[in-house]
Write a sequence for this structure.
């Protein structure tokens, strides 16, 4: 273990660590909380819930988001659901099973103590959200309904149709706005953090750009919480929102926060395939669809070709000529294998020539069997033993619509095809990043006073996140972890008094930020920012995407460095600094993605094993499954920014100790 | 296809603003409307003209950020979609498309097609919540069963994305659909009952303060709402408001 890393995992059995730790964290009295300021960057599930909860406790909170309202944060787009170990379905779920599934699903690269705490607080999240008036799906008895997600064999996912993220975020947003109304939270919308301010080794504020006026503002606090989401947009095309970016986290990294496991990125198996060159983003089709959809490609190469050429329709292909490859390869979990496994399997079939759209990069997600099954059920319930096939299909279609209606509609609007009649076409796309800023058990980074929550940290999902666990983690961090653990740092600050923004550290950070923005404007080159971002994305997708190898990663590093050099020389940004200028903001974000991309490649290069979303072609079994190297790589890679060059980052290792889950080869067969 | 775009350009809130006309060529019918706007912007940058500013983020119809008035309709000619989900196949080669920001006194223009919708946040601050702090020991989520019909209706109201299309569409620039959707969500759930009277009074009061107009039951908001929020919610809010006035 590196001497610079102290994970501060409490002593004792894993199931008692959190309770014991909570009982020993120093408290800050209500009178003293009023003298302490906390900055929260980002208002997704983690940021909103943290800001609201800390304000309720009495801290002075300043919250920042780059959107026009905190309600827009990209947590809102999460579709499928949120996990919790409630065992309402009486199917054998428990805190331990959720803990175990998450560690296993993460391919044994996460920290046991953090994951166990996540499983412990999961049930409270559901209670909290219901109390806030979040309208979860219910059954006819009025109780909460559940469904299944990938990588597990119980039904523990709570949902609100295909809009669970929206409903949870609006709950947290309401709680946040309630505190804004009370004056406990000062909300800064259309503001973006452009640097972290470190005073005497502690995080004491940020520099934010007012996106409407262009002004650089100094904001001080006793602690800073970064909850700015993941870095999936480094791939250019992803399911992230257009504005999602790594800048807040990257700036913190450059000021001393270690970046952990940057190469652990999640490619989600069920997204709408790329259709054209000018495509700006990809749209996810929820994993929940794999509860009822069956994934297949034609079994024969000539049938695949005929479909691609438009000579054959998928609905005309008989059952025996279809290859339900997930059911074939993984009979125990079938279509509900974890995301990394499902994505690689789709890529394998398409690489072998069985893809079903013009580009050859799509597989089918077929609901016809589910429609007929549900239709038959309805016919039985309604006492229609002689129902015709058309009647059964109509009833089944109605039921499928009630479960997934908004997703089917979304699909039809984008592709102009009716998924009730013809199977959906899907392909993997970048969706989530497990890597992020390194944090200890208290969610504090290597910069004292800088906490990191939600997707922005690395802590809970190892090398692969299970479906419906991102919402759980965001709300766990914000509602139930940070409100306690910030005390470990802030208890020493009750006599500090307010932090002055006249300190030289603030001036220095503000000047550096101004110089940087002016640099983009003064380059006066010939290529728009968007073109650089697209080129960066292609390098990252081709060489640091679903499959990686040594030669490719080395090429990627050289290409990224060259592109970065070209960017600073040739970028073209019009307009000025002191005005609303989205192109300038984009240049600032893309510049950071270009540095992060190199660190991702470096991390992927040094991790000589395959685990979860990180698949090194050199390390696979005979049948193409990922091969971990536990004796050498059971650690977290925490990178320290060194010599002002992302390529010269210093690696620190946090050894992972497994006391409660046995390290075995992950099998879903 | 080739298109003529008449786009509203306005430097800032103080600027008068005017239409500018641009041509775009070789637009694929599979592009989304915002991808077409991206093409326009790349073309403008190449010509040394500052790009058109517009709000957008998730580009999958859920964040509520995109907000264009296209050929006289909020979110354009398609139904049940936001601008980011509108596809160019809804237009024809040679069309002239007029693109404006939301127009309402309570939504001042920030720049070009971008408006300030913080009035909606302030309405939520006035009462769009259940007053419950974060607590680790709340009653179990299944302690209070909720009739499925009510839970589903609350969900339908809660799917409002706060985009403001209802305001932009209404000839009175009324925000009744937005406010009533939030009032309805809580009115239909047991958790919302305790503060029901104060909530509806305070939210309606804030709505009036912000300068939104009154509802005259034209129903246009319901037609243009990308999430299909029903005007039944407005009727429910009026009942709630009346109830609150009587019991006050």
């Amino acid at each position: 273990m590196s001497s610079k890393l102290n994970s501060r995992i409490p002593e004792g059995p894993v199931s008692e660590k959190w309770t014991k730790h909570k009982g020993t964290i120093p408290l800050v009295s209500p009178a003293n909380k009023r003298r302490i300021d906390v900055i929260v960057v980002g208002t997704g599930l983690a940021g909103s819930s943290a800001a609201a909860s800390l304000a309720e406790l009495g801290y002075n909170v300043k919250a920042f988001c780059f959107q026009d309202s905190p309600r827009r944060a990209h947590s809102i787009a999460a579709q499928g659901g949120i996990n919790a170990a409630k065992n309402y379905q009486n199917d054998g779920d428990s805190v331990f099973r959720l803990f175990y599934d998450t560690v296993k699903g993460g391919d044994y690269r996460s920290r046991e103590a953090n994951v166990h705490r996540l499983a412990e607080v999961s049930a409270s999240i559901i209670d909290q959200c219901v109390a806030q008036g979040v309208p979860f799906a219910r059954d006819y008895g009025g109780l909460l309904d559940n469904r299944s997600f990938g990588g597990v064999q119980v039904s523990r996912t709570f949902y609100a149709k295909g809009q669970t993220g929206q409903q949870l975020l609006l709950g947290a947003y309401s709680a946040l706005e309630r505190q804004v109304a009370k004056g406990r939270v000062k909300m800064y919308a259309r503001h973006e953090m452009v640097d972290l301010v470190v005073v005497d080794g502690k995080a004491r504020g940020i520099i934010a750009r007012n996106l409407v006026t262009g002004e650089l503002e100094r904001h001080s606090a006793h602690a800073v919480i970064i909850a700015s989401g993941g870095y999936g947009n480094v791939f250019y095309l992803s399911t992230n929102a257009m504005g999602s970016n790594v800048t807040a986290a990257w700036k913190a990294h450059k000021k001393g926060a270690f970046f952990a496991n940057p190469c652990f990125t999640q490619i989600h198996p069920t997204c709408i395939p790329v259709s054209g060159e000018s495509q700006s983003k990809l749209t996810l089709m929820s994993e929940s669809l794999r509860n009822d959809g069956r994934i297949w490609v034609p079994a024969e190469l000539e049938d695949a070709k005929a479909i691609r050429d438009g000579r054959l329709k998928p609905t005309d292909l008989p059952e025996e000529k279809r290859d339900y490859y997930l059911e074939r390869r993984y009979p125990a979990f079938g279509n509900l294998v974890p995301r990394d496994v499902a994505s690689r399997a789709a890529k394998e079939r398409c690489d072998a020539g069985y893809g079903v759209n013009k580009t050859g990069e799509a597989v089918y997600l077929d609901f016809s069997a589910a429609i007929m099954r549900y239709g038959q059920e309805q016919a039985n319930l309604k006492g229609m033993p002689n129902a015709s096939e058309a009647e059964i299909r109509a009833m089944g279609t109605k039921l499928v619509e009630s479960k997934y209606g908004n997703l089917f509609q979304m699909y039809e609007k984008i592709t102009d095809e009716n998924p009730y009649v013809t199977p959906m076409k899907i392909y993997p796309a970048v969706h989530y990043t497990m890597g992020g800023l390194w944090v200890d058990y208290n969610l504090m980074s290597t910069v004292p006073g800088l906490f990191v929550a939600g997707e922005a940290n690395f802590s809970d999902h190892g090398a692969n996140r299970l479906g419906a666990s991102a919402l759980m983690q965001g709300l766990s961090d914000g509602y139930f972890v940070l409100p306690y653990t910030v005390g470990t740092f802030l208890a020493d600050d009750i006599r500090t008094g307010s932090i002055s923004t006249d300190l030289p550290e603030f001036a220095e950070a503000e000047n550096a930020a101004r110089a940087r923005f002016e640099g983009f404007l003064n380059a006066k080159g010939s290529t728009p920012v968007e073109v650089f971002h697209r080129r960066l994305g292609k390098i990252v997708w081709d060489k640091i995407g679903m499959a990686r190898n040594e030669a490719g990663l080395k090429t990627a590093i050289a290409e990224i460095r060259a592109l970065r050099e070209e960017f600073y020389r040739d970028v073209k940004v019009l307009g000025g600094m002191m005005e609303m200028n989205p192109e300038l903001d984009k240049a600032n974000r893309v510049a950071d993605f270009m540095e992060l991309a190199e660190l991702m490649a470096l991390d992927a290069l040094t991790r000589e094993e395959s685990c979860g979303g990180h698949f090194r072609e050199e390390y696979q079994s005979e049948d193409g499954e990922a091969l971990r190297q536990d004796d050498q790589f059971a650690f977290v890679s925490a990178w320290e920014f060194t010599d002002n060059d992302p390529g010269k980052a210093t690696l620190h290792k946090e050894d992972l100790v497994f006391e409660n889950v046995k390290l075995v080869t992950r099998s879903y067969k | 296809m080739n298109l003529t775009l008449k786009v509203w350009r306005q430097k800032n809130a103080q600027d008068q603003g005017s239409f500018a006309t641009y041509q775009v060529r070789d637009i694929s019918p599979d592009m989304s409307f915002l991808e077409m706007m991206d093409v326009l912007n790349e073309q403008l940058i190449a010509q040394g003209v500052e790009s058109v500013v517009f709000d957008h983020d998730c580009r999958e119809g859920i964040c509520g950020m995109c907000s264009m008035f296209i050929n006289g309709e909020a979110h354009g000619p398609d139904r049940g979609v936001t601008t980011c989900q509108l596809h160019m196949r809804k237009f024809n080669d040679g069309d002239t498309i007029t693109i404006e920001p939301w127009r309402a006194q309570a939504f001042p223009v920030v720049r070009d097609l971008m408006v300030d919708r913080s009035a909606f946040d302030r309405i939520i601050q006035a009462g769009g919540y259940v007053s419950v702090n974060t607590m680790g020991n709340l009653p179990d989520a299944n302690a209070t069963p909720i009739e499925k019909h009510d839970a589903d209706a609350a969900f339908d109201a809660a799917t409002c994305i706060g985009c403001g299309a209802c305001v932009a569409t209404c000839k009175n620039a009324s925000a009744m659909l937005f406010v009533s959707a939030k009032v309805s969500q809580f009115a239909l759930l047991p958790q919302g009952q305790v503060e029901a009277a104060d909530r509806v009074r305070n939210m309606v009061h804030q709505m009036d303060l912000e300068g939104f107009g009154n509802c005259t039951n034209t129903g246009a908001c319901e037609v243009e709402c990308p999430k299909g929020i029903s005007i039944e919610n407005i009727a429910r809010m009026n009942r709630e408001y009346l109830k609150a006035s009587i019991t006050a």
Q: What stands out?
A: Chain B has two domains: 3-110, 117-247.
